[in-house]
Structures are given as C-alpha cells and as structure tokens.
Design a protein that fits this description.
472 residues; alpha/beta; Rossmann fold; 2 domains; six-stranded mixed β-sheet; two-stranded antiparallel ribbon; 17 helices; 8 strands; 46% helix; binds zinc ion
C-alpha cells in the first residue's frame, strides 16, 4: 500500500556517533541502534518491542476486529504492507494474553497490466510474492487489476450477493488498458476501482475485514491530496482508522501510527522482505497528478522537517464526519465511484453552490444559459453543465460547444455525474468518454438513473415524500 518513495536504503545505524554514549532510552542498558524521533534512541530489542506493541495497541484501542474474525490483509509488496504482514505473524505467535486472535488471509492486486509491465515481469513479481506469502502459512489470493472489469454492480451498493457480469472481457481489457496508457487521469479513476476489487475479493472469499497498510506518511499524502481534490467531506473516511462505507466489509489501517522511516528501519533490522513493484502512482512523473505532486512534497517535507508530517497526520485523527450510517434506504445517496455519502445534495446557500456558479461563469467556451444558472442556484440538478441545458432545448445543433457533438453520450455523462460526489465528478469530467469506465459502474449508473426517474414520475402519488425525495 505504501508507495511513498523515501530513500532509506542506507544502513539506519548511527555510524557517526560512538554508540557507548548512546544508551537505549527504554532499558537504559543496551547501546542504541536506532533513533526513532530526535532524542529517542532505542536498542535493537526495545525497538522491536516498541514496534510490535504499537501494532497491537492500535488494534486493541479501536476494538473493531473480533476474535476468530476473518481478516484480509491487502499486501502490495511495498515496505509498509509487508511490515503489516510481519506484525500479524508476530501477533499470532505471541503468548496467550498478547496474542492476536483473528484469522488472516492475504490479497495482492497485480497492477502490472495497468502500468504497462511485461508479462514476464509480472510473473516474476508474482512468484516472488507467492514465496513470501507461502512462508507465512496464511491463505493468499493473487488478483490481477483487470478483474475490476468483471466485477458485479453490487460492489458499489454494498449488497451481499454478487451477480455474474457480462463477458466481453478481452475487448474490455484492451480498451481499458489502452486508455490507461494514454491518460494519466484514468489512474485517478483506477484507485477507487482497485478498492472495489479488494472489497469484492474480501466478500467473495468470506472475509469481513480488510486490513490496509497505509503508513502515517502515506496518510499525510492522502489527506493533503484529498483536500486539493475537493474531497473535504470524505476526509475522515479516507484517512481514519476504520472505514465502513462498504457496509459489510470494514477497512482498517493499523499501520497509520508508523512513519515510513520507522517502517524502513524495522524492515531493515528484522529482514522483512518487500518486493518493489511499479504501481499506479509510482510510475507517474512528479507533476502528473495532484496525488503525485503531494507525494513528492511530503517526501521532501519528511526529509527536511520530519515532525511536520506527523502533525499533518495527527490532524486526520481529529476529523469527524457528519456521515449517516449506511443502510438500505441510503444506498441511492452514495457516490458511484468512491462509495462515500454524496456531498452534492446540499442546501442552496452553500459553498458548494457558489463553487458551481463560479465554475459556470468562468468556463471559457460555454455561454451560461439563464436556465442553467437558475438551476445551479436552485440546487436542482446541480451538475448539469450549461451546454446540456442548451442541447436539450435546441436539439444539440446550435449550442456550439464541443461537448454538444455527442448528445446521447453526454446525457449519460450528465446522469453519471449526478451519481458522483463532487471530487469524483471532477475526475470524471476530465475523461474524454465515460464509456471507458467498467461495465459494472455503467450498468449501476443506468439502474440508479432509471430508479430516480421512476421515482420522479410517481412522486405525486407518494404520501411520504419527505423521507425519500427531499434530495431530488
Ligand atoms: Zn533497550
Ligand atoms: Zn466519490
């Protein structure tokens, strides 16, 4: 999971300081082997104990994993998730009162296809990781990212029973991967899809928890990137310890208290194997995406001002969300892509509405039709761009904007946008065609759109419209 590229390959010992002068702060006896924070030198044994204790304490404090529960560990082969795997092994081998009591399995998502890795390289990585996983004795699942194209729509509605998807598999894979090559932003779309695949694997293999290896450094990147991407409303869910947006499968992040540096020290000292694989984000250049730019910013910050990174991360701990619990009645109101509760159904006099109006006014090509501006003000159908309003009234002939050349497709884009949170709308807006999204997303979009149309048609006959239709 952890993809922050920090360079800690040098031996993490203290060659320049004579070790006799540096006693371990914990046992005050052995000589220091590692400095975790400035002024806190630890000996090898104490560092190990501190590291293992932190993991157990994080799980103990949050009390979300129950004894005997099946927990799926998402391991990317990177330092942080590999270290997480080791912590679970350590936890299961501890003596009675300290022992972890859940039953773990491992999942690896092979992103090689999406980043253009050769078949040979993918097979090599897979066999290296298989050897690591086999050594743990845990059951493991190797899943190619391409499998998102075969996911059932139920993934994005937190339903329990998966349905088989239609198979135009090969063509879909080619089309999707081709577009992944040419467009950086599609990689932003791939991240939520990757999450869908993890959730689906957990569901179909009978796990009820998903354990992610996000370190504190990783979460600092996520936090800042999320703010920049307009994901303010989802911050708490995106960066918190546990995340229950999928309902039955709860994701937890037990590595969130460790910095990338600590993890690198631990992995080096206790020979935790990690397999470096090119991932969706690591292949991009520094300025390819907001996530990548934030990542390089945080890495530099970590190098020069290490304590600021943990400050960013501590901020994420304090975040709370006014999110309602996800229940069957609320399913219509979650984002189709990130499955967070929609932040777009808000009142008229909100910052969100002002943002929309400013966006329309500043768009260079489109002339703002009075209808669209009014619609934006009234909050009705808030994501309909002006050209769509025009194409509906003028038949798509006189609008003059480039978007109007394909009215049928545009309608789908508009309908799709209505089903997305603000941030995911921005992501999808950059895509040249929504057809590139996997079929399970598109068919779920059609289903939801039909349902809301139907609901609108019969709304006059509904007695209790406060409860259901207030979000129109
Ligand atoms: Zn010690
Ligand atoms: Zn979203």
């Amino acid at each position: 999971m952890c993809q922050v590229e920090e360079d800690y390959r040098d031996p993490p010992l203290l060659p320049d300081l004579p070790s006799v002068f540096n006693k371990c702060v914990k046992c005050k006896d052995a000589s220091a082997a590692v400095v975790v924070r400035a002024g806190d030198p630890y000996c090898r044994a104490c560092f190990k104990e501190y590291f293992i204790h932190k993991f157990r304490a994080m799980l103990g404090k949050n009390r979300v994993i129950f004894p005997g529960e099946k927990v799926l560990l998402a391991v990317s082969g990177g330092p942080s998730s590999s270290s997480m795997l080791r912590q679970v092994q350590e936890g299961l081998s501890q003596n009675a009162h300290k022992k972890l009591r859940f039953s773990p399995g491992v999942v690896y998502i092979d992103e090689g296809g999406a980043v253009g890795q050769s078949v040979q390289a993918r097979l090599r990585t897979a066999s290296e990781l298989q050897a690591v996983f086999r050594a743990t004795g845990f059951p493991f699942h190797m899943v190619p990212l391409e499998q998102v194209l075969d996911l059932p729509s139920s993934v994005v509605v937190a339903a329990v029973s998966p349905e088989p998807a239609a198979s135009t598999y090969k063509a879909a894979v080619d089309r999707f991967m081709q577009s992944a090559d040419t467009e950086h932003h599609i990689q932003t779309v791939l991240l939520p899809l990757r999450q869908h695949l993890l959730v689906h694997t957990a569901r179909s293999e009978g796990y009820s928890k998903l354990m992610l290896g996000d370190s504190c450094s990783r979460l600092a990147v996520k936090l800042l990137a999320a703010i920049s991407l307009g994901r303010g409303a989802q911050l708490a869910q995106d960066t918190g310890f546990s995340d229950s947006r999928y309902g039955d499968i709860v994701s937890v992040k037990p590595m969130r208290d460790y910095s990338a540096k600590e993890i690198a020290f631990y992995n080096h000292m206790f020979r935790v194997p990690s397999v470096t694989t090119p991932s969706l984000t690591s292949k991009m250049s520094d300025k390819a995406s907001i996530q990548r730019l934030t990542e390089s910013f945080i890495s530099k910050l970590q190098a020069d001002f290490p304590s600021t990174v943990s400050t960013i991360y501590r901020t994420s701990e304090k975040l709370q969300t006014a999110c309602r619990p996800s229940s069957a009645a609320d399913r219509m109101d979650t984002c189709l892509l990130c499955v967070c509760v929609l932040d777009t159904s808000v009142g008229n006099a909100t910052a969100f509405q002002s943002t929309l109006i400013s966006k329309y006014l500043s768009e260079p090509k489109a002339q703002v039709s009075p209808g669209a501006a009014a619609a934006a003000r009234s909050g009705h159908n808030p994501v309909t761009p002006p050209c769509v309003e025009q194409s509906r009234s003028c038949g798509g002939e006189h609008c003059g904007t480039s978007a109007c050349t394909a009215p049928a497709q545009l309608t789908l884009t508009t309908d799709l946008k209505n089903l997305l949170c603000y941030s995911c709308q921005l992501t999808v807006r950059d895509m040249s065609s929504v057809d590139r999204l996997p079929q399970y997303i598109l068919s779920e979009a059609q289903r939801r759109t039909r349902r809301s149309q139907l609901r609108e048609e019969i709304s006059d006959f509904l007695l209790d419209d406060d409860e259901d239709d207030s979000r129109g």
